């Protein structure tokens, strides 16, 4: 198992190097990228089954024992995140392969796209298994470098501008995180997460609070938590469709994952739980109000992404095993559903030539499959029973009710309202894009209805086609989102066991230091 844990990080890194040497062989690059992510998916599944049955794994790299060496830790939460992230990265990669085949790689130049994509995967996987703060910081920097390249692919002015905003904000976040690491090391003499839970508790309370807040601010920017979320709706929509999908599905969840580790292991006293619940409510409300006001589907989804981060903070702030279990399930649900919606939006953009809601219409008539692929995850994100979004929110509300505090009840009310507004915003967009007739759209320029009427005359031969591989990748993600409902009971049971593991630092500490830590 130690070798498999190491391969989770090494395989995508070595795969990126191999793909870079094959810059003039796009098919070889594609094969390398798909093979690497498929292998990590299998390894992640094996690790998940193993740690669920036998307990968490701690791997000491280079023969250096903790806390002096780098430690990789895989518990149930980390293993579950590895599986979900690998599945999402693989599906989006397949989607981008289809887009590249159809467009001649105008949107995703193969020579740089696949190596950079695998570097991004390296950062994501390493973040989930990092056992010390500095290794986690390295993961964020890997993500920053790779994501900046991906968000500016194509070199258009809007993408360069969005990439500039993204990198400035990310650098500020990284600087705050690095400063926090330096202060923590100066105060405790270690950056090992398991050891910090012991040593930080020995510091004066005011010093603990400063360090705690600094970590939360750094991770809050990564997770797009209000009021640190202003950058996201202006950055993500500018990237190519597959890049936007993987960013929306995964990158903010890495920040949420870091917040979980901070609150449950590094600072397990729960002193900022009320603050987290207040921030969760504001993130929900402000995010969804922004979504309701949008006339572009990508920006609308970006604001719903911000809004639903609040649900995850809700589960974390409750600070109970039930709340953590619900938050874990909701994270899995949101990664899957949000990615699926952005992939479906990529299909809409190909069919209609735009993501402007007011400029689209009649797509259900010409592309009913895309309508279905958007409709199912839309219902799930909106919390319609029996989909996974409803189940996750119900579990969060139940955990909040059991908590019984005033902030928890306020969050329940906010969560119910935000769920309704989410459904309203998405249903309105779906109705305008798919249901209304193209004749109702002023200055309508969508070529597809014309194509259907005149039978594909030479006048519309320039219309981009939608390859089956893109539709298939999106359909696979829809199937995964439905599977979260069909297999909700075993997934909830797994999430509950993961929640019990991270409800306090004891399990994590004994995994890294079986004989105890000072």
UniProtKB/TrEMBL annotation:
Transmembrane segments: 28-49, 56-74, 80-98, 110-128, 134-153, 165-187, 207-232, 239-260, 272-293, 369-388, 408-427, 469-492
Alphabetically ordered keywords of this record: Cell membrane, Membrane, Transmembrane, Transmembrane helix
InterPro entries reported in the protein's UniProt record: CPA3_Na-H_Antiporter_D (IPR050586), NADH_UbQ_OxRdtase (IPR003918), ND/Mrp_TM (IPR001750)
Domain NADH:quinone oxidoreductase/Mrp antiporter transmembrane: 130-416
Membrane topology: Multi-pass membrane protein
Cellular location(s): Cell membrane; Membrane
Top-level division of the source organism's lineage: Bacteria
Family (UniProt): Belongs to the CPA3 antiporters (TC 2.A.63) subunit D family.
UniProt name for this protein: Na+/H+ antiporter subunit D
């Amino acid at each position: 198992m130690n070798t498999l844990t190491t391969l989770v990080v090494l395989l995508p890194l070595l795969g990126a190097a191999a793909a870079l040497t094959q810059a003039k062989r796009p098919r070889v690059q594609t094969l390398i990228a798909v093979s690497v992510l498929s292998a990590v998916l299998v390894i992640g599944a094996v690790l998940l089954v193993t740690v669920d049955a036998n307990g968490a794994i701690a791997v000491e790299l280079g023969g250096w024992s903790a806390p002096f060496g780098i430690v990789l830790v895989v518990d149930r939460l980390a293993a579950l995140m590895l599986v979900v992230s690998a599945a999402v990265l693989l599906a989006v990669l397949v989607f981008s392969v289809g887009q590249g085949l159809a467009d001649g790689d105008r949107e995703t130049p193969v020579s740089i796209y696949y190596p950079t994509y695998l570097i991004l995967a390296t950062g994501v996987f390493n973040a989930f298994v990092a056992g010390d703060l500095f290794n986690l910081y390295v993961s964020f920097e890997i993500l920053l470098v790779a994501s900046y390249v991906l968000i500016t692919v194509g070199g258009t002015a809007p993408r360069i501008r969005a990439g500039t905003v993204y990198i400035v904000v990310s650098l500020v976040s990284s600087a705050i995180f690095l400063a926090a690491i330096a202060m923590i090391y100066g105060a405790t003499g270690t950056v090992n997460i398991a050891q910090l839970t012991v040593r930080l508790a020995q510091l004066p309370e005011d010093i603990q609070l400063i360090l705690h807040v600094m970590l939360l601010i750094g991770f809050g920017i990564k997770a797009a938590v209000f009021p640190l979320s202003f950058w996201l709706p202006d950055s993500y929509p500018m990237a190519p469709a597959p890049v936007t999908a993987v960013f929306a599905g995964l990158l903010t969840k890495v920040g949420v994952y870091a917040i979980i580790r901070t609150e449950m292991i590094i600072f397990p006293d729960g002193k900022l739980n009320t603050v987290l619940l207040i921030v969760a409510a504001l993130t929900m409300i402000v995010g969804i109000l922004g979504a309701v006001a949008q006339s572009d589907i990508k920006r609308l989804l970006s604001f719903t992404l911000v809004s639903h981060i609040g649900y995850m903070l809700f589960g974390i702030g409750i600070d109970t095993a039930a709340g953590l279990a619900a938050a874990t399930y909701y994270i899995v649900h949101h990664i899957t559903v949000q990615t699926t919606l952005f992939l479906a939006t990529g299909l809409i953009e190909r069919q209609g030539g735009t993501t402007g809601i007011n400029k689209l219409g009649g797509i259900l008539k010409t592309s009913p499959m895309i309508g279905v692929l958007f409709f199912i995850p839309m219902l799930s994100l909106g919390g319609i029973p029996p989909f996974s979004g409803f189940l996750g929110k119900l579990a969060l509300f139940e955990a909040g009710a059991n908590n019984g505090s005033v902030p928890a009840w306020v969050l329940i009310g906010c969560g119910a309202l935000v769920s309704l507004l989410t459904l309203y915003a998405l249903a309105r967009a779906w109705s305008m894009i798919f249901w209304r007739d193209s004749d109702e759209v002023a200055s309508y320029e969508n070529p597809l209805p014309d194509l259907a009427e005149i039978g594909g005359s030479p006048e519309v031969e320039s219309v981009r086609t939608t390859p089956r591989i893109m539709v298939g990748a999106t359909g696979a993600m829809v199937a995964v989102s439905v599977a979260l409902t069909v297999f909700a009971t075993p997934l909830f049971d797994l999430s509950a066991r993961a929640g019990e593991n991270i409800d306090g630092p004891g399990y994590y500490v004994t995994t890294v230091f079986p004989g105890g830590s000072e």
